[in-house]
Amino acid sequence: MVSSWLCLSLSDTWIPQDVHSPTENYLLWMWNNRLYVYSAAALLLGFCFLLQIKHTKDSGSKDSGPKVQKAAKNKISSDEDADVHVSGVKIFYGSQTGTAKGFASELSQEVQTLGIPAEVIDMKDYDPDDRLADECVSKSVCVFLVATYTDGRPTQNAEWFCKWLEEASTDFRYGNSFLKGLRYAVFGLGDSVYVGHYNTVGTNVDKWLWMLSARRVLSRGEGDGNVVRSRHGSVQADFRAWRVRFLSRLRALAGGEKKSCSGNCKSGASCKNRKKHGAQEEEEEEHGSEVELIESSSEEEESGWRDEKTSRSVVDMEDLGNIMNSVRKAKLILCSAVVSGIFAHQHVLPPSGYKLIGSHSGVKLCRWTKSMLRGRGGCYKHTFYGIESHRCMETTPSLACANKCVFCWRHHTNPVGTEWRWKMDPAEKILQDSLEKHQNMIRQFRGVPGVKPERYEEGLAAKHCALSLVGEPIMYPEINTFLRLLHSHRISSFLVTNAQFPQEIRNLVPVTQLYVSVDASTKDSLKKIDRPLFKDFWPRFLDCLRALGEKKQRTVYRLTLVKAWNVEELQAYAELIALGQPDFIEVKGVTYCGESSASSLTMANVPWHQEVVAFVQQLADMLPHYQIACEHEHSNCLLIAHNKFKVNGEWWTWIDYDRFQDLVQAHEDSGGQQSFSALDYTAKTPSWALFGSNEQGFDPADTRFQRRNKTKDISGC
């Protein structure tokens, strides 16, 4: 109101300036310059606000200074950790005279001068099954300095390591990518005077690691003890030359560099590393032989390894003409051996751990034998029937088979046939060689980390024989002689047949336990899964089940479930069980054995343990005289037993092996007149083996071992 009145009065009447008081004059000036006053006030407030913010920041920074510095340090430390490309170098040596051990010590000192931790490891003190897979993620580089000993064998301290590596490289349970991520280099020590065995151990270690998808950071080096042919004049000079190259490569890896291209790209395209490689070559030429690499891992060599890694060819006696038309497949079988009647595949079975015997037999160390030697549990037969897995010999007197089953974990590398047509070895020779080779394989576990001394000593004397290695044991014409010899050594017999030889089943002498593989319950599904060679396979199959029912000793149906192929045939299975009236029915999920040109089986066909349990429960409900007795979860296997083995509410599925040997001896002494039945040699089943127990069939006396691997464990028995 005052402002309005002043405006009106000023506009209507002139008033001399001295008429107003000083206060009025001040107010009037303020009003006329109000725009400037407002701007100045705004600037002042803004300036004050900025000062306040700055003061707050300064005080806050003083309080949080140590925290900020700590965070900064943590960030720097984290960045440094992220930039660590080589956490250390582990140098493994296999040495007999100490040369490789000395080289390992020298290399360790050189590596440490680079500021990289190094560890020297004696191969005999290292358990590859437990620890080698850990190296895939530890950012370490593994160096293998291995000498070749007599006849191309590893040195004593490297025997177990090399044996494990060889078996793992061909064992489908590990898989081709088991060591993916492991970085390695190999230097072999040998003597070219021994032409046939020169540096075979170094070559093999390199090959086996490569087959398990480990990554070679430097080509294999070879030291030659023959000074005449040594590349640098001595094995020591050969090693020094290789060591220079390795240390150079290690520096590059530690700096985060990947292996430079050799300039010979397979695609033939231009290479961005070609200039760099050319400069590197010039530098190497300046240094002369000091940095010359002993190249041994060629593309041709890897190509051969690749063929070995992927080759899964079917070799059938009926298809011999087709085999001979293929040069590569012809290499898998010895033509001269076929002519002389020997069909054992010298180039196929041995890499998988088989030991061939004579012309038609074989023996192999079961993985459960190895497991129980180390106190890591036994197979399902230990849970169901009480065998001692570390004392079990897995063998066969006939590598040939009359079926080509889709789930054969030998990938049909054994011949097949419908009748015996080969030179026959005597049963005494087969048993003697089997026991000797089995014992030699057990001896290789002496001193291996984790092996229990008492079980090692027990394992040297076989107490059980599983005639289920490969092929059809019952085809061997002297099978009864072989069984009698086993029993005379007080070795129990577990004989498996594929249900195609009914008359041979009827002619069998007493067996500790006789199995028949019932892989399908209808004619069509059996043809699809077992792929039998006999045209009258179905009548033969049914007659074998009837022959089994005539036996007085323990009999077993072995069912292998293949999802989407035979798990829907419950009623048909029940009818087959009624036909043969077996004492026991083992039901097991199929084990996936890896890719094979011989089979279309995939992981999709492998049932989960819960699915196997559900199948068994449904099947047991359809069988009036049977119940579920035992379970071995680790093998994905369950046991259905006849009610006669349940006495006073307790299961007696285990076997009294000493009692069986006494009974079978009395049977032989009486000329077959004194008979006995399955109930005469039973033993009580422990609670941990029963279906529904917390242990799920794992013996609490042992320790469960889970393999540290990136892939799913699909192993069975």
Automatic annotation (TrEMBL):
Transmembrane segments: none annotated. Residues 89-247 form the Flavodoxin-like domain. It comes from the Eukaryota. Pathway: tRNA modification; wybutosine-tRNA(Phe) biosynthesis. Its cofactor is [4Fe-4S] cluster. One of its GO terms (molecular function) is FMN binding. Keywords: 4Fe-4S, Iron, Iron-sulfur, Lyase, Metal-binding, Nucleotide-binding, S-adenosyl-L-methionine, tRNA processing. It catalyses: N(1)-methylguanosine(37) in tRNA(Phe) + pyruvate + S-adenosyl-L-methionine = 4-demethylwyosine(37) in tRNA(Phe) + 5'-deoxyadenosine + L-methionine + CO2 + H2O. Residues 57-76, 257-311 are annotated as: Disordered. Probable component of the wybutosine biosynthesis pathway. Wybutosine is a hyper modified guanosine with a tricyclic base found at the 3'-position adjacent to the anticodon of eukaryotic phenylalanine tRNA. Catalyzes the condensation of N-methylguanine with 2 carbon atoms from pyruvate to form the tricyclic 4-demethylwyosine, an intermediate in wybutosine biosynthesis. This is S-adenosyl-L-methionine-dependent tRNA 4-demethylwyosine synthase TYW1. It comes from Poecilia reticulata.
